[in-house]
Specification:
single chain; 263 residues; alpha/beta; six-stranded mixed β-sheet; 10 strands; 16% strand; binds hexanoyl-coenzyme A; fatty acid metabolism
């Protein structure tokens, strides 16, 4: 893969999984502008790479990411922040069509928690700590924290976390509430291995069907039920235009494993 300053981007899982590792351990992987430019670049490259079916993102050291880089943003004026929209480019993460699994190994705070929530699946390591401490800094979450957290953990718990800036959420609670799909005990290597194995499993599915399914599930975040179900049906009908749908259904009837080939 390409060389970056603050992250590593490697291809794993027999060539079918892209792995992004945040690697600024001295700053607990604080998400500087440069680091997020690299993350978006790596995700877009994996998204465009035909053999890759899913992506894993994790952090090196004791943090997944301790938030946006406080040292970098502290002196910004309102006009600087508003005119340059300095975190707007993070939204590119949500435009990636392949599934992204966040393997949250430690602190996921502020922008780190928000980055994890922009991913499609969170798997928590046993030391994962989710939090939105922005109010301690005299600011508020800025890239979805006030919007996505409430959908995951409910209003009271989201309000408690956001309004106090404390009361972080550990791995077990995150899994109980559905913020994470499960907790992987043990070392970070085990967590990343589990995330890669899940990504590999997804990579075996039809790539266009996975993209359609991700788009359809994410629609639930954006709009109401009636409109969501209507859009789901359009995407469902669209799968009947794919060779992979013919292959998948024929394989079932013929009692064999499907071999998906559509790009
Ligand atoms: C810049 C950071 C940082 C951050 C940690 N560091 N978090 N630098 N931005 N977000 C740096 C510290 O300054 C320190 O550098 C080094 O990393 C190690 O951190 P310590 O605080 O010494 O570690 P520890 O005592 O273990 O405490 C861990 C911690 C604490 C609880 C995670 O670092 C912390 O509270 N960090 C800030 C968390 C936060 O408020 N995040 C939200 C940011 S605002 P030196 O040079 O001293 O060794 C945000 C807004 C998002 O994310 C909005 C849009 C994206």
């Amino acid at each position: 893969g390409k060389e970056y300053e603050s992250i590593h981007a490697t291809i794993v899982g027999d060539g079918t999984v892209g792995l992004v590792t945040l690697d600024r351990p001295k700053a607990l992987n604080a998400l500087s502008h440069a680091l997020m430019v690299e993350v978006v670049d790596a995700l877009q490259a994996f998204d465009a790479s035909p053999k890759i079916g899913a992506i894993v993102i994790t952090g090196k050291g004791k943090a997944f990411a301790a938030g946006a880089d406080i040292k970098e943003m502290k002196d910004k004026t309102f006009v600087d922040a508003y005119a340059s929209r300095f975190v707007h480019h993070w939204n590119a993460v949500t435009a990636i069509r392949k599934p992204i699994i966040a393997a949250v190994n430690g602190y996921a705070l502020g922008g780190g928690c928000e980055l994890a929530m922009m991913c499609d699946i969170i798997i928590a390591g046993e030391r994962a700590q989710f939090g939105q401490p922005e109010l301690n800094l005299g600011t508020i979450p800025g890239i979805g924290g006030t919007q996505r957290l409430i959908r995951e953990v409910g209003k009271s718990r989201a309000m408690e976390m956001v309004l106090t800036g404390k009361h972080f959420m550990g791995a077990q609670e995150a899994a109980q509430r559905g913020l994470a799909c499960r907790v992987v005990p043990g070392e970070d290597e085990a967590l990343v291995a589990e995330a890669i194995s899940l990504a590999k499993e997804i990579s075996k599915q039809s790539k266009p069907v996975v993209a359609l399914a991700k788009e359809s599930v994410n629609t639930a975040y954006e709009i109401g039920l009636t409109e969501g179900v209507r859009r789901e049906q359009v995407l469902f009908y669209a799968t009947f235009g794919l060779q992979d749908q013919k292959e998948g259904m024929s394989a079932f009837v013929e009692k064999r494993s499907p071999e998906f080939k559509d790009k």
